[in-house]
């Protein structure tokens, strides 16, 4: 899974953590070489990681407003991406997805219970430092 943070400009490592905000700019720290760096355009350009994530959720039947709430991305942006990339959702959506946001420990506990996963279409996607589980109750396909 790609890092949601920019790579280190010094050693190109993906192992990056947030390290405070300096003069309105997000500061990052490289865990590999310990180099601190800031990124100019935070908030202006949205990481392509989130574009893909938003479109994934859209295809899974999550509404624009819910995507906005979950990812913190304006539903107008998401609508524009759907148009730009010509995303079409197949009409045969017979079930409304349900989803939950879990941390890693909760995710492990959740999937360890058979009743939580049996008979359910399931998709787990990384969401910042948490995980999102999208499920559909078993439906009949003709
Ligand atoms: Zn580095």
Describe the overall structure.
Helices cover 30% and strands 27% of the residues. It is globular and about 50 Å long. Helix 2 crosses helix 3. The longest helix is centred in the middle third of the chain and has 12 residues, at 48-59. The chain has 3 domains: 1-43, N-terminal domain of TfIIb (Single Sheet); 46-92; 94-142. A hairpin with a 2-residue loop joins strand 5 and strand 6 (130-137). The protein contains 5 helices and 6 strands, in the order E-E-E-H-H-H-E-H-H-E-E. The protein is an alpha+beta fold and 142 residues long. The strands form 2 sheets. Strands 1-2-3 form a 3-stranded antiparallel sheet, with no helix packed on it. Strands 4-6-5 form a 3-stranded antiparallel sheet. The structure holds zinc ion. Zinc ion binds at residues 8, 10-11, 13, 30, 32-33, 35. The site of zinc ion (ZN) has 8 residues, from loops.
**Estimated radius of gyration:** 18 Å
DSSP E strands, number: 6
Largest sheet entry: 3 strands, antiparallel
> What is the share of helical residues?
25-40%
The dominant shape is globular
Descriptors for this entry?
30% helix, N-terminal domain of TfIIb, single chain, 27% strand, globular, 5 helices, three-stranded antiparallel sheet, binds zinc ion, alpha+beta, 142 residues
Short précis:
30% of the residues lie in helices and 27% in strands. With 142 residues, the chain is α+β, with helices and mostly antiparallel strands. It folds into three domains: 1-43, N-terminal domain of TfIIb (Single Sheet), CATH 2.20.25; 46-92; 94-142.
């Amino acid at each position: 899974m790609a890092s949601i943070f920019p790579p280190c400009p010094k050693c190109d490592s993906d192992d990056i953590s947030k390290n405070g905000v300096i003069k309105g700019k997000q500061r990052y720290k490289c865990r590999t070489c310990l180099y601190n760096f800031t990124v100019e355009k935070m908030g202006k350009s949205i990481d392509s990681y989130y574009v893909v994530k938003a479109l994934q959720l859209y295809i899974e039947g999550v509404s624009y407003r819910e995507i906005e709430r979950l990812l913190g991305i304006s539903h107008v942006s998401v609508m524009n991406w759907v148009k730009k990339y010509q995303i079409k959702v197949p009409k045969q959506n017979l079930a409304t997805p349900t989803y939950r946001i879990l941390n890693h420990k909760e995710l492990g506990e959740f999937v360890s219970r058979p009743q939580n996963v049996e008979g359910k279409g399931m998709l787990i996607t990384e969401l910042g430092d948490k995980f999102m589980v999208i499920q559909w109750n078993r439906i009949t396909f003709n």
